[in-house]
Amino acid sequence: MTENSRKFVTVFTSALSNCSLYSAEHEAVEELSRRALSLLEQMVDETGSLEIMVVENDLVVNKTPLRDAGIHGANLVRRLKKKGISRVDFLKGIVFPELKQFISDIAEPDGHVRPLPHIRAGTIDVRLSGPAIDIEIDAEGLFRVASLQVERTKNIYRGISSYGQLNATGVEEIVGTFIEAFRKKANILKLLSPVPSLGEHEYTHAVNVAALSMFQAETLGAKDELLYDIGIAALLHDVGKLFIPREIMEKEGTLSEQEWEEIRRHTVYGARYLARTEGLTRIAPLVALEHHRRYDGQGYPGLAGKERRQHLFTQIVAIADFLDSMRNRRHHPQEEGIAGMASLMEQGAGREFNPFLVNHFSKIIALSLGE
Fold first, then answer.
1. pTM score
2. What whole-number distance in Å separates Cα of residue 125 and Cα of residue 121?
3. How many CB atoms lie within 10 A of CB 181?
4. Where in the chain is the domain with CATH 1.10.3210.10?
5. 221: left (phi over 0), alpha (psi -120 to 50) or beta
6. What gap in Å lies between CA 120 and CA 83, rounded to an integer?
7. Residue 47: which of 10, 98, 100, 4 has the closest Cα?
8. What percent of the chain is predicted at pLDDT more than 90?
9. Which residues, at least 6 apart from 96, have a Cβ–Cβ distance to it below 8 Å?
10. Reading across the β-sheet that carries 58-61, which strands appear in turn?
């Protein structure tokens, strides 16, 4: 599917470029449009629709970031943004005249994009959850859910720290519990565990970061396998700290530069461990490696080529990581403090964090608080 997505983006963008250069009736536009339709029909037959989202400067096709889309991907992002479009859905049953009309509308600098039966173009919807189901979760129930996930995470992490094999099934069960809570329209802020004691911090932090990361992803439209992958990667993002000596992690007072350097290595330790773990989503080692690298390429670990940004999933986890770390640092877990921390995060937009995701996160937090 990913390879076909790249081919479609390349052919579709070439059709747009030729349409801008010549006209919609030019033979090159005709040929490229028919090739794009052929690729589109193959993908739509498999999934029922093809969804393209623009998240900042990244293309996400059917919930999967399209990396290395090259000049064609950048061109498509630019053209869609110019039209104020951040999401396009191609539906089953699309016919050639529709696709050709859409190409013509996008290519026309000053024209508008008209509605078409099997093409829906607009902006990404900000939503808090899917349809409600009958069972409601009260505050006491949510507290029990959060507490249980912390206990499960503790057992999983202790197995890792003893150099045992990761309990992948246990990780999936935790992530599945959060997905079920989202389906029941649980308030994400009620699912966050309170600031823990020092000995419990790493487990509680992992659970909170997973919940916040999945919440962001779910409101951006992530579903099913993609939502599981983000949740698993977020739950395990700090797993490398289990390989840091406890006397360093729990040291009271100022750490030496050498000790700080050892703590910074947790990103590499975690990535190595997760990369060796069979059956785990491939995004987990990458998120573990990149989550302290920052949006502008600063941070750690230092990787070749600062122009290479964090993966989109890592950017989502980095926002969740920051928010929960601030809750712990400030000892202020109340909901009214969450909004303030989200506002504080906006100061780092463009440097530490993806500005699109920060803006989106602030909106969904405000919605959760009923503001």
1. 0.66
2. 12
3. 24
4. 139-368
5. left
6. 13
7. 4
8. 31
9. 33, 34, 37
10. 64-65, 58-61, 49-55, 87-91, 119-122
> What's the rounded Cα separation, in Å, for the pair 61 and 200?
39
In degrees and rounded to multiples of 5, residue 179 shows phi and psi of: -60, -40
Measure Cα distances from 163 to 77, 159, 263, 286, 288 in Å.
44, 7, 18, 20, 17
- Name residue 65's beta-bridge partners: 60
Average pLDDT over residues 16-34: 92
Residue 135, pLDDT > 50, answer: no
Distance of alpha carbon 255 from the chain centroid: 33
Q: Which residues contact 37 (CB under 8 A, 6 or more apart)?
A: 94, 96, 99
Provide the residue count of the chain: 371
Q: Which two tokens stand for residue 216?
A: 């962001």
Topology of the domain covering 139-368? Hypothetical protein af1432 (1.10.3210)
Q: Is the omega angle on the peptide bond into residue 301 within 30 degrees of 0, that is, cis?
A: yes
Contact, 351 vs 296, CB < 8 A?
A: yes
Task: Indicate if the alpha-carbon torsion angle 265, 269, 272, 274 is positive or negative.
Answer: negative
Instruction: Give the closest residue to 222 by CA, choosing from 285, 189, 178, 187.
Output: 178
pLDDT at residue 344 greater than cutoff 70: yes
